C-alpha cells in the first residue's frame, strides 16, 4: 500500500467521528511514516501528539493528503478543532479536539473556523450568535456544547475550580466543568466515582456555577442518546441521572427554564427513556412537564407504572432501559421512604415555562404531528409516542390528535397498556368545554371495547372525565343518548350511562331529563322512541336511577331559543306528562312487585320497598301538580280539555288506555296491577292544597266544582291504603280549610244577564268558623 493510500485511510478515520472518544496521547503507530500495510485498522483514533505545534489548516474545504514533512502530518486532526483564542498554549488547543461529539458528522468539515486573535468571549455571547437554530426538529434543535473543555484529573477538579474562582476566571471554570462533562460522556458505562462525587459536592455548595448556557449545553448532551454506545448490553444510567440532578440544582429556584430542557425531554421520551422514567430524576422531569399543563394520573392508576422502569420499547424495536433492573428494584422501597421523609420536594414543582408557553407548545405540537403523520403500520407505532402523548394531554390539540387514533391503539395488543394510560390522561385533562374538547368527548363516547378488562378501565376513565369539569356531565349524557339513537350505536352506551348515574346520582338524572326534553321539541314525534329508550335505560341500569330527580328535571322550564320559539308547545306538554307517568310505573322493581302481591294477600312483612315506592310516587305527583300550576301556563296556553287530561293523568285518575296506547306497555298481564300500585299512594298536603288553588284560579281551566271533586276522590283513595306503617294524609295548614270553603262559594255564571238587584249582600251576616257568608236574596 502506498503512503498516499495510507493517508487516505487516515483521513477516512477522521470522518468516522471517533477521534473524540479517547484522551490518551498519540501512540507511535499513528505516525504515518511508521504505519505498516498489514497492521489492523484501529477502531478509534487518538489525539495527535503534542511534540510539535500544529500549523494553520489549509484553506478551502479539502484535506491535504500529499507528501509532507513528518512535523506536518499532525495537522489532520486540527480540522475538528474549535479554537477560541491564540493565547492558549498549543497543547491546550490539541486537547480541544474532542469538543465536537460524533453527531456533528460531515457537516463539521464543510466550513472550518478560523483561529481567533481576540480574547475569549463568554458563553452567553457565543450562544447568542447561534440562536437562530431550527427549533422544530428533535436532535438538530439541540445545540452541541460550544465551550472549549479543559480536562484535568478528577482528583484536582475542585482545586482547579477554586483557583479559577479566586482569580475571577469564569471562562476557565466553565471550561473545567465542560471538561468534566466530556470525561463523563466518554465513560458513560463506568464513570469515575471521584468525578461525579466532586460534581455533586460542587452542586451542593455552588449550584449557580452550572447555570451558564455553555454548561447547560454540555449537560444536556449527556441527556441525549450517544450513538457510539451500544445500549443493547446492560448499561448504566448514572451519567444521565447525574446530569438531571445537576441541572435541577442549578435551576431549582428559577421560575423561567430554558427551552432546551423540553427538547431533550421530548427526545428521551421518544427514544430510550433513560432518565425520563427514572425515579431519581422525578423532580426534574415533573418541573419540565409543567410546561405542558398536564394533570398526570396518579401512579396507582397508571398501568405502565410497574413496567415504567424498563423504559425500552421492545415492541417498536428500540433498546431496553440501560439501568440495571436489579439495582432499580432494590432501591424502590428506599425511594418511597425518601419521598415520605421529604415532603418539601413538592414545593420544588412549580410552573417553569410561563414566559415560553407559546413557543414550547408550538414545538411540542409540531413534533407530535410529525410523529403521528408518518406513514407507518399501526404495529410499528412506538409505545413511547403514546407515553409522550400521555404527558402532553394538557394541550387541547394533543388531546384531539390522540383521541382520533386511540381506539386502534387500544385494540392493538402491543399498545394496549400505554393506550389505556393515554385514555386516562385524556379524560383527566378534558376540562375546557371548548369545541375541541366537545369533539374529544364525542370520540371517546364512540370508542368500542369488548374485553372486560378494557371495559372496566374505560369506565374508570369515564369517571375521571366527569371529575375533570362539571360541564362534562351534561355533555357526556347528551352525546351518549344521541349515539344510542343513531345508526352507529355503540353497544357500550348503557354501561357508560350506568357509570354516569352511579357517579352523579342527583345531577345525572336531571341532565338525562333535559336530553329527553330536547327530543320532544323536535318537529318529528319522538314520544314512542323516547318511551322505548327510557325503558331500555331503566332496564340496563337496573333501576339505579333517582326517579324523582329525573321527573323533576322533565318539569324544568327552559329559556333557550329553541324552547321559546317551539312550534308544538301543547304537544310538548302532553308528551312530558306521558313520560312522567311512564317513569312512575318504571319505578316498580321486581322487589316492589313481589311486596305488592304479598300485601294484597294480607302479608305485611318486608314492605319497606313498597312503602318507599309509594312515597316516591306521592312526591312525584306533588311536583307534577306544581308543574301544571306554575310552569305549564308560562309555556303555552293549553286547552281546557288537554290541561284537565294532563292533571288527571299524573294523578292516575285518567282512563287506563291512555297509559299504554302508544306502545302497549305495560304488558297486558301487568297493566291493572301497575296502575293500581301507582294510584294507591299517600296524598301529600302540598298536592291537595295546590289542586284547590288551581280550582280557585280564573286563569286555569279547572273549575271549582271539578277541583273539589278531584280533591274528594284523592282523599278517599288515600284513606283506602291507610296502614300503621304508612301515613297517607297529614294536614297542618288552616289555609286548606279556607280554600275548601272558598271553592264552595256559589259563583253565578258570568255569561248570563241577571235582573237589577238580583244578587246583593244581605244586611244580615252569618259567621261560620270565622268565615263571613252572605245570604242571597
Question: Gist?
Answer:
With 777 residues, the protein is mainly α.
Helicity level = 40-55%
Overall number of strands: 2
Q: Let me know the largest β-sheet.
A: 2 strands, antiparallel
As laid out across the biggest beta sheet, the strand order is: 1-2
What oligomeric state best describes the polypeptide chains here? single chain
The global form is: elongated
**Average pLDDT, all residues:** 77
Rg (CA only): 41 Å
Instruction: Give the low-confidence spans.
Output: 1-141, 304-344, 762-777
Number of helices: 32
Derived from helix and strand composition plus strand pairing, the structural class reads mainly alpha
Question: Strand share of the residues?
Answer: under 5%
Organism: Sander lucioperca
Region (Disordered): 32-117, 302-331
Domain Integrator complex subunit 1 RPB2-binding: 358-513
Pfam families: INTS1_RP2B-bd
Output the keywords.
disordered N terminus; two-stranded antiparallel ribbon; mainly alpha; disordered C terminus; 777 residues
Describe the structure.
Strands 1-2 form a two-stranded antiparallel sheet. About 35% of the residues are buried. The longest helix is centred in the last third of the chain and has 28 residues, at about 610-635. Mean pLDDT is about 75; it is low at about 1-140, about 305-345 and about 760-775. It contains 32 helices and two strands. The protein has about 775 residues and is mostly helical. The chain is elongated. α16 packs parallel to α18. About 50% of the residues lie in helices and about 0% in strands. It has helices at about 5-15, 90-95, 125-130, 155-165, 170-185, 195-205, 215-220, 240-250, 260-270, 280-290, 325-340, 355-370, 385-390, 395-405, 405-410, 415-430, 435-445, 450-470, 470-485, 495-505, 510-520, 525-540, 545-555, 560-565, 570-585, 590-600, 610-635, 640-650, 670-680, 685-695, 705-720, 735-745, and strands spanning about 760-770, 770-775. The N and C termini lie far apart (about 145 Å). InterPro entries: INTS1 (IPR038902), INTS1_RPB2-bd (IPR022145). This is Integrator complex subunit 1.
Amino acid at each position: 500500500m502506498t503512503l498516499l493510500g495510507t493517508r487516505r485511510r487516515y483521513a477516512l478515520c477522521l470522518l468516522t467521528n471517533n477521534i473524540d472518544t479517547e484522551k490518551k496521547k498519540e501512540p507511535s503507530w499513528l505516525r504515518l511514516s511508521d504505519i505498516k500495510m498489514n497492521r489492523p485498522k484501529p477502531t478509534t483514533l487518538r489525539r495527535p501528539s503534542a511534540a510539535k505545534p500544529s500549523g494553520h489548516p489549509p484553506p478551502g474545504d479539502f484535506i491535504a493528503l500529499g507528501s509532507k514533512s513528518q512535523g506536518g502530518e499532525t495537522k489532520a486532526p486540527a480540522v475538528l478543532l474549535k479554537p477560541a483564542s491564540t493565547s492558549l498554549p498549543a497543547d491546550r488547543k490539541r486537547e480541544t479536539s474532542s469538543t465536537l461529539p460524533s453527531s456533528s458528522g460531515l457537516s463539521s468539515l464543510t466550513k472550518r473556523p478560523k483561529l481567533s486573535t481576540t480574547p475569549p468571549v463568554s458563553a452567553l455571547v457565543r450562544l447568542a450568535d447561534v440562536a437562530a437554530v431550527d427549533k422544530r426538529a428533535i436532535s438538530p434543535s439541540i445545540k452541541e456544547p460550544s465551550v472549549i473543555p479543559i480536562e484535568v484529573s478528577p482528583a484536582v477538579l475542585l482545586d482547579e475550580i477554586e483557583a479559577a474562582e479566586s482569580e475571577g476566571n469564569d471562562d476557565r471554570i466553565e471550561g473545567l466543568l465542560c471538561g468534566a462533562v466530556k470525561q463523563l460522556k466518554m465513560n458513560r458505562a463506568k464513570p469515575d466515582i471521584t468525578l461525579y462525587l466532586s460534581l455533586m459536592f460542587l452542586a451542593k455548595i455552588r449550584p449557580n456555577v452550572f447555570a451558564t448556557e455553555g454548561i447547560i449545553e454540555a449537560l444536556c448532551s449527556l441527556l441525549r442518546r450517544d450513538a457510539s454506545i451500544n445500549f443493547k448490553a446492560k448499561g448504566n444510567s448514572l451519567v444521565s441521572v447525574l446530569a438531571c440532578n445537576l441541572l435541577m440544582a442549578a435551576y431549582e429556584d428559577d421560575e423561567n427554564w430554558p427551552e432546551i430542557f423540553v427538547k431533550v425531554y421530548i427526545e428521551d421520551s421518544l427514544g430510550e427513556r433513560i432518565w425520563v422514567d427514572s425515579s431519581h430524576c422525578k423532580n426534574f422531569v415533573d418541573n419540565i412537564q409543567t410546561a405542558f399543563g398536564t394533570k398526570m394520573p396518579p401512579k396507582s392508576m397508571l398501568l405502565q407504572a410497574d413496567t415504567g422502569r424498563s423504559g425500552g420499547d421492545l415492541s417498536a424495536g428500540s433498546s431496553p432501559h440501560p439501568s440495571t433492573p436489579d439495582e432499580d428494584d432494590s432501591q424502590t422501597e428506599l425511594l418511597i421512604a425518601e419521598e415520605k421523609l421529604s415532603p418539601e420536594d413538592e414545593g420544588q414543582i412549580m410552573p417553569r415555562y410561563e414566559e415560553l408557553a407559546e413557543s414550547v407548545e408550538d414545538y411540542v405540537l409540531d413534533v407530535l404531528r410529525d410523529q403521528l403523520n408518518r406513514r407507518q403500520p399501526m404495529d410499528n407505532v412506538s409505545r413511547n409516542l403514546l407515553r409522550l402523548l400521555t404527558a402532553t394531554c394538557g394541550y387541547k390539540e394533543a388531546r384531539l390528535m390522540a383521541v382520533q387514533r386511540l381506539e386502534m391503539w387500544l385494540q392493538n395488543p402491543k399498545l394496549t397498556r400505554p393506550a389505556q394510560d393515554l385514555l386516562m390522561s385524556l379524560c383527566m385533562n378534558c376540562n375546557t368545554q371548548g369545541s375541541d374538547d366537545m369533539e374529544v368527548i364525542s370520540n371517546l363516547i364512540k370508542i368500542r371495547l369488548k374485553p372486560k378488562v378494557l371495559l372496566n378501565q374505560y369506565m374508570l376513565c369515564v369517571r375521571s372525565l366527569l371529575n375533570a369539569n362539571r360541564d362534562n356531565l351534561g355533555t357526556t349524557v347528551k352525546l351518549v343518548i344521541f349515539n344510542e339513537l343513531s345508526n352507529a350505536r355503540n353497544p357500550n352506551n348503557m354501561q357508560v350511562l350506568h357509570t354516569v348515574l352511579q357517579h352523579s346520582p342527583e345531577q345525572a338524572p336531571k341532565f338525562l331529563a333535559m336530553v329527553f326534553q330536547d327530543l320532544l321539541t323536535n318537529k318529528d314525534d319522538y314520544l314512542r322512541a323516547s318511551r322505548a329508550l327510557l325503558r331500555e335505560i331503566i332496564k340496563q341500569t337496573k333501576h339505579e336511577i333517582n326517579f324523582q330527580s329525573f321527573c323533576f328535571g322533565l318539569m324544568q322550564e327552559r329559556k333557550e331559543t329553541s324552547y321559546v320559539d317551539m312550534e308544538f308547545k301543547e304537544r310538548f306538554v302532553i308528551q312530558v306528562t306521558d313520560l312522567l307517568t311512564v317513569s312512575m310505573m318504571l319505578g316498580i322493581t321486581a322487589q316492589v312487585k313481589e311486596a305488592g302481591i304479598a300485601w294484597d294477600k294480607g302479608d305485611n312483612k318486608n314492605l319497606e320497598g313498597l312503602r318507599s315506592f309509594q312515597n316516591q310516587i306521592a312526591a312525584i305527583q306533588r311536583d307534577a301538580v306544581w308543574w301544571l300550576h306554575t310552569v305549564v301556563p308560562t309555556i303555552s296556553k293549553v286547552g281546557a280539555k288537554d290541561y284537565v287530561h294532563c292533571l288527571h293523568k299524573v294523578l292516575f285518575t285518567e282512563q287506563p288506555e291512555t297509559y299504554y296506547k302508544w306502545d302497549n306497555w305495560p304488558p297486558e298481564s301487568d297493566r291493572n296491577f301497575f296502575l293500581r300500585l301507582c294510584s294507591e299512594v299517600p296524598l301529600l298536603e302540598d298536592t291537595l292544597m295546590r289542586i284547590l288553588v288551581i280550582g280557585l284560579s280564573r286563569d286555569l281551566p279547572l273549575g271549582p266544582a271539578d277541583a273539589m271533586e278531584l280533591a274528594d276522590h284523592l282523599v278517599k283513595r288515600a284513606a283506602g291504603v291507610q296502614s300503621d306503617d304508612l301515613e297517607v294524609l297529614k294536614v297542618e295548614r288552616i289555609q286548606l280549610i279556607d280554600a275548601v270553603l272558598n271553592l264552595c262559594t256559589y259563583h253565578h255564571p258570568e255569561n248570563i244577564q241577571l235582573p237589577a238587584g238580583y244578587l246583593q249582600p244581605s244586611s244580615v251576616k252569618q259567621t261560620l268558623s270565622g268565615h263571613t257568608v252572605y245570604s242571597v236574596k
